[in-house]
């Protein structure tokens, strides 16, 4: 009887253990990659200096010539293009060491190379800076492509073409990396401009722009113009560049009105997409498909990335409307280039692409449109006789990402103070006298759901669920271990059972 009972207990425990193990290993711990508001017609004054005030309608206007920020000093403070990234020059440490830093609105860590790497020409030597202080914490960040590891510290930073003043900020010193620094890039670090929620190793690490706002007293707003539209990544003539305006808006960089849309949640710059059109074809998908599992605006992503179902629908619609019916599938999935005889532009064969965003009035929307010149992108020429192009869209398992392919058509305002993003036509999104982008609205949104993000589990909620499941599984495991150990140790009730586990690194784009 005792033997039968013991076997039964072991069998019961083993079966429960298998069930619990399955629960433990299936806990979702992945961070997914990465409501729109439209203003009425807004005519900004040509004032350039800060601080910003409200005009009564929630729009930030430049008004006070205090000298803290001169927006004109920041115009053309970026170099680079969509293929190699847009970067800004920074001076770090004492004495200053100058590095080029990639501008990324899809992450939150300020990180710089702090060790040699084959693909970079120089790095930040922490030993040579008298003001660098190590925080004694390690940090690791994994992106959609590439990752790095290093240590956290603090030091002084000056942006030569940025706000006046020296800022003490958190810096991640990159000591090792894989696939992060790439051949041909001219930057040695990354400037994450998103919210603390995405900071690694946790949200206690204050992001760079939060520190700038707090220490220099500038308004919590920045705006971004990226001027590589329609330019070949291999071209040295007419180099691209752009502007990162910290503290406000520079009216000379755009034309027409700024159309605002709310930030759905403050981690990435998450927005709500209502529908997509290819030419005049509405894809006619449920709007929740576009926001699966989120839709974000990310300057650090080159392409327009779409959820798989949306991407397939877009490719099918382009194929139907394109004058070229028999196109290699390799072109659509990014494995092949399409080439034409030099001087023969392919853009006339392709339709416009439009993204509808929810307006301030939730029953309305507005539309941002890019011409084929922005998503059929020149890459290189072959023997001087052919021009080759790539498809500027890709499928995504991590949500919809409005990357440089779209952003290059617009002047984008990240108005964090008012929790909204603004879009205006960029003055540099012009090729051969033709504007490469369009904005129109407002339109009725009565034909879409009241909340296209409804039903999507946001990552903070996923974290809570994950930790709760881990706690439940840990408790059950402890109980099972006690059941296994106690029958064998009837004479000794002392001892302690501990359970240690660690989370996987999170993918942040």
TrEMBL record:
GO terms for cellular component: endosome; plasma membrane; trans-Golgi network. The keyword Zinc does not apply. Glycans are attached at residues 164, 361. It is a single-pass type I membrane protein. GO terms for biological process: amyloid-beta metabolic process; enteric nervous system development; melanocyte migration; membrane protein ectodomain proteolysis. The chain crosses the membrane at residues 461-486. The active site is at 104, 298. Keywords: Aspartyl protease, Disulfide bond, Glycoprotein, Hydrolase, Membrane, Protease, Signal, Transmembrane, Transmembrane helix, Zymogen. InterPro entries: Aspartic_peptidase_A1, Aspartic_peptidase_AS, BACE, BACE2, Memapsin-like, PEPTIDASE_A1, Peptidase_aspartic_dom_sf. It is found in: Membrane. Residues 86-424 form the Peptidase A1 domain. One of its GO terms (molecular function) is aspartic-type endopeptidase activity. Pfam families: Asp. Disulfide bonds join 227-428, 287-452, 339-388. PANTHER family: ASPARTYL PROTEASE-RELATED, BETA-SECRETASE 2. Belongs to the peptidase A1 family. This is Beta-secretase 2. It comes from Seriola lalandi dorsalis.
């Amino acid at each position: 009887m005792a033997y039968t009972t013991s076997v039964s207990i072991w069998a019961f425990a083993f079966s429960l253990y298998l069930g619990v193990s399955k629960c433990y290993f299936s806990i979702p711990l992945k961070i997914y990659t990465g409501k729109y508001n439209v203003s009425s017609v807004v005519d900004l004054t040509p004032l350039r200096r800060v601080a910003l005030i409200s005009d009564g309608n929630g729009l930030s206007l430049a008004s006070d010539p205090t000298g803290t920020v001169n927006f004109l000093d920041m115009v053309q403070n970026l170099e680079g293009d969509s293929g190699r990234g847009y970067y800004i020059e920074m001076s770090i440490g004492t004495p200053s060491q100058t590095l080029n830093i990639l501008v990324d609105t899809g992450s939150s860590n300020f990180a710089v190379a702090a060790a040699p790497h084959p693909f970079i020409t120089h790095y930040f030597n922490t030993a040579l800076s008298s003001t660098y202080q190590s925080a004694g914490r390690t940090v690791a960040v994994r992106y959609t492509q590439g990752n790095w590891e290093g240590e956290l510290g603090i030091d002084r930073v000056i942006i030569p073409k940025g706000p006046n003043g020296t800022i003490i900020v958190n810096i991640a010193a990159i000591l090792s990396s894989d696939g992060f620094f790439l051949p041909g890039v001219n930057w040695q670090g990354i400037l994450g401009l998103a919210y603390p929620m995405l900071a690694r190793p946790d949200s206690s690490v204050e992001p760079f722009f939060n520190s700038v706002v707090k220490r220099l007293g500038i308004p919590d707003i920045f705006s971004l113009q990226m001027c590589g539209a329609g330019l070949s990544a291999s071209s040295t003539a007419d180099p691209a560049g752009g502007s990162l305006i910290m503290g406000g808006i520079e009216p000379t960089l755009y034309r027409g009105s700024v159309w605002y849309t709310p930030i759905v949640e403050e981690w990435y710059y998450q927005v709500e997409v209502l529908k997509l059109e290819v030419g005049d074809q509405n894809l006619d998908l449920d709007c929740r498909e576009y926001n699966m599992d989120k839709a974000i605006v990310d300057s650090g992503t080159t392409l327009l990335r779409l959820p798989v179902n949306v991407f397939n629908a877009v490719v099918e619609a382009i194929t139907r409307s394109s004058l070229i019916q028999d196109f290699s599938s390799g072109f659509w999935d990014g494995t092949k280039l399409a080439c034409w005889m030099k001087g023969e532009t392919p853009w006339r064969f392709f339709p416009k692409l439009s993204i509808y965003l929810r307006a301030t009035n939730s029953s309305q929307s507005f539309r941002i449109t890019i011409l084929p010149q922005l998503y059929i992108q020149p890459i290189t020429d072959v023997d001087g006789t052919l021009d080759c192009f790539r498809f500027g869209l890709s499928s995504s398992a991590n949500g919809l990402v409005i990357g440089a392919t779209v952003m290059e058509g617009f002047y984008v305002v990240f108005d964090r103070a008012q929790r909204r993003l603004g879009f205006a036509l960029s003055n540099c999104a012009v090729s051969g006298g033709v504007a490469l982008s369009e904005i129109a609205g407002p339109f009725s949104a009565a034909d879409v759901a009241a909340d296209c993000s409804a039903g999507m589990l946001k990552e903070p909620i996923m974290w809570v669920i994950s930790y709760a499941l881990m706690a439940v599984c840990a408790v059950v495991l402890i109980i099972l271990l006690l059941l296994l150990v106690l029958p064998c140790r009837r004479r000794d009730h002392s001892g302690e059972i501990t359970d240690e586990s660690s989370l996987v690194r999170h993918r942040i784009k």
